[in-house]
């Protein structure tokens, strides 16, 4: 049985278009309606045939939906929800895919009083944006974290769980604030570090940009993949998950200072102990199927 029959996707970029493709592949009987603020994206979604219908307004998109998923930058969630609030059918489940959960839950609750709101975050993505970047298998074997409020109807939470499982995802349910703390260290801080390193290299006097690019295989290019991620999406993530990111940044700065001291005072044992511990983390990620074991991320040489 289908968990939902009429899906509306707000925002047809990388994640929204991937959901549409994955639903077409795994639950073809579900009717998909799409909306995007950008008319070129709407036209592209029609050309790609990823939705059954693409509307020109958010209200028209939700009119008969039983599940609405918001796939816009986290700072835009409340505004989009406000635009369709008057047309949302009673009993429809409203969810999202935002990378921060507490701020989105607060924004949606404020503009959709009485609605069934179940925030979610598929921990899957790439550095690309837009409807052409999506693909049907993006969520396969990846985690999708649901952060329902205490009063969310259990049947709706279960239906959303089934929906994501049908797209290939594994499900975890957790508190929104805990989600934001976990993702601050596993996703948000790594992006901040990548943006910083790439920015610092770009600013370096005495090392030319052509040298940075020429010798990037030394490790730099792995940071550039993350630092190529969507600027608007990541601006919103840092502003929306400010407290958790600042807390993790503080810890990171202290650990960095400790490493700085270890290098200055030739504490090789300390460096080696840390590097051995971190290598084991990489092994665990591979063992749990969250990355491939191929050397150099499977690049062809
Ligand atoms: P994306 O490819 O840039 O797509 C977002 C789409 O939403 C764009 O087409 C954008 O149009 C549209 N949009 C922006 N504001 C809107 C509004 N007010 N109303 C309707 N449409 C609007 O971004 P994405 O990577 O799919 O990210 C979408 C969400 O997924 C974000 O909340 C992000 O935190 C979350 N997420 C991303 C990843 C990832 O790796 N990328 C992973 C997990 C979760 P414009 O062309 O006008 O900007």
Automatic annotation (TrEMBL):
Top-level lineage group:
Bacteria
Q: Which SUPFAM superfamilies match?
A: 6-phosphogluconate dehydrogenase C-terminal domain-like (SSF48179), NAD(P)-binding Rossmann-fold domains (SSF51735)
Reaction catalysed? Answer: prephenate + NAD(+) = 3-(4-hydroxyphenyl)pyruvate + CO2 + NADH
Q: Which GO terms describe its biological process?
A: tyrosine biosynthetic process
Q: What class of enzyme is it?
A: oxidoreductase
Which pathway, per its entry? Amino-acid biosynthesis; L-tyrosine biosynthesis; (4-hydroxyphenyl)pyruvate from prephenate (NAD(+) route): step 1/1
Molecular-function annotations in GO: NAD+ binding; prephenate dehydrogenase (NAD+) activity; prephenate dehydrogenase (NADP+) activity
User: Does the UniProt entry include the keyword Signal?
Assistant: yes
What keywords tag this UniProt record? Amino-acid biosynthesis, Aromatic amino acid biosynthesis, NAD, Oxidoreductase, Signal, Tyrosine biosynthesis
Q: Does the keyword Methyltransferase apply?
A: no
The signal sequence is: 1-22
- Entries under InterPro entries matching the protein: 6-PGluconate_DH-like_C_sf, NAD(P)-bd_dom_sf, PDH_C, PDH_N, Preph/Arog_dehydrog, Prephen_DH
Domain Prephenate/arogenate dehydrogenase: residue ranges: 5-293
- EC numbers, comma separated: 1.3.1.12
**Family membership noted in the UniProt record:** Belongs to the prephenate/arogenate dehydrogenase family.
Q: What protein am I looking at?
A: prephenate dehydrogenase
Protein species of origin: Sphingorhabdus profundilacus
